[in-house]
Specification:
Blueprint: E1 2-6, H1 11-22, E2 26-31, H2 38-44, E3 47-50, H3 56-63, E4 68-71, H4 83-103, E5 108-112, H5 137-154, E6 159-164, E7 166-168, H6 175-184, E8 187-191, E9 197-198, E10 200-202, H7 203-215, E11 223-226, E12 230-233, H8 234-244, E13 250-254, H9 256-270, H10 281-284, H11 296-302, H12 310-323, H13 345-348, E14 374-376
Parallel strand pairs: 1-2, 1-4, 2-3, 4-5, 5-6, 6-11, 7-10, 8-13
Antiparallel strand pairs: 9-12, 12-14
Length: 378
């Protein structure tokens, strides 16, 4: 079986590509840049095409002959780019992919969206029926991409949508790297009470859901929120990162409002001169936004079960950051994917070339006691 993974050299896509290659699949990758793990994936047998999903001809070439397409490519929180860039990649690029899938008779398309389409969750725990309230243009265009996919479902395309929570794991270039760096200092400055909830998902748990959404029969046009078992209070999350690093951390609390005001001013000053602001509203809103979700739909319909718990995932992630110099500010150029935490294809219930369920047969990977202040979401 041939599977196309768009965005397949990025953080999320590279872990998915590695998993599919380990299953014995032929994997084709379409990405606009080589990414961190290009050489690893190439050596494992991936067919890699360097092109953008905005290039309809390249998308056609990549999709032709594929049975499944996993669409993870996205313009993700880039600063100092016009809003049109997000629209071109996240909406029109998705249209190119869906259109090619329909024309070439792809068995199933899986579109990677984001739980961010729900914005700040006003209810204590959100789900797929929570109001759509994107908080920025990235989230808005990801939801517009969902609408494109649903439009093609109406035309006969078999497709499902994944809305991941906050993805983390080895290779994560974003918030969790920042979190590890701040905790490493020994004092963490928390703006606000630190009681807002944040819902992580380990990259290997997310990859499980991609496989399930591609292989589960009898469903189409469905959206699934994918996260780990729990959301966590920010205070608890900081302490768990410290524990994973085997460090003590002191959390100092400060008022949130002055930081938010400063971020608005900073962004306004930097934007005209096209300088990346060190502080901007979207970043500081991390301290305030509430993100906690119920993953029971994915459990009941897909058979999804998060197999890597937070202590194990954070320890693996921290060790990868340390090994490749990310925590001391000198990241190495030659980096590699770490070994998978979860067991091989047979243990997960998906053998090479066989359409089967994953989840119930997979062993859960635990690293110790669960986090304090964790909220059950299933």
């Amino acid at each position: 079986m041939t599977t196309l993974v768009t965005g397949g050299t990025g953080f999320t896509g590279s872990h998915l590509v590695r998993r599919l290659l380990e299953r014995g699949q032929h994997v084709r990758v379409l990405d606009n840049q080589p990414g961190l793990f290009h050489d690893d994936l190439k050596a494992m047998g991936a067919e890699i095409m360097i092109a953008s999903v905005t290039d309809a001809k390249a998308v056609d070439q990549a999709v032709e002959g594929c049975e499944v397409v996993q669409h993870t490519a996205a313009a993700f929180r880039k600063l100092n780019v016009p809003a049109q860039h997000y629209w071109d990649v996240n909406v029109e690029g998705t249209r190119n992919v869906a259109d090619a899938c329909l024309r070439y008779g792809v068995r199933r398309l899986v579109y990677c969206s984001t739980q961010g389409v729900h914005g700040h969750v006003a209810d204590e725990i959100g789900n797929e029926q929570s109001p759509i309230a994107p908080a920025d243009y990235y989230q808005e265009t990801k939801y517009e991409g969902e609408k494109v996919v649903q439009g093609y479902v109406q035309k006969g395309l078999d497709a499902n949508i994944i809305r991941p929570t906050a993805i983390y794991g080895p290779g994560d270039p974003g918030r969790f790297l920042i979190l590890f760096k701040l905790v490493q200092r020994g004092t963490f400055h928390m703006f606000g009470p630190g009681t807002s909830h944040y819902h992580p998902v380990h990259i290997e748990n997310l990859v499980d859901s991609f496989e399930l959404a591609a292989e589960k029969e009898g469903i189409t046009g469905e959206a699934f929120i994918i996260g780990d078992d729990h959301s966590y209070e920010l205070n608890a999350l900081v302490r768990e990162v410290a524990r994973a690093m085997d460090r003590d951390v002191t959390i100092k609390h400060w008022p949130f409002a002055p930081l938010r005001a400063a971020s608005v001013v900073c962004e306004a000053m930097c934007k005209p001169i096209r300088v990346t602001p060190p502080l901007f509203p979207r970043r500081v809103d991390w301290f305030k936004q509430h993100r906690s979700f119920d993953i029971s739909k994915a459990r009941e319909v897909l058979g999804y079960e998060p197999r890597v718990d937070l202590p194990t995932g954070l320890k693996q992630t921290g060790e990868w950051y340390r090994q490749y110099g990310y925590l001391d500010g000198h990241p190495q150029r030659d980096v590699h994917l770490p070994p998978s935490l979860t067991e091989g294809p047979e243990a997960a219930g998906l053998e090479s070339g066989v359409h089967a369920r994953i989840g119930d047969g997979g062993n859960r990977i635990h690293g110790g006691a669960s986090c304090t202040d964790a909220r059950q979401t299933g």
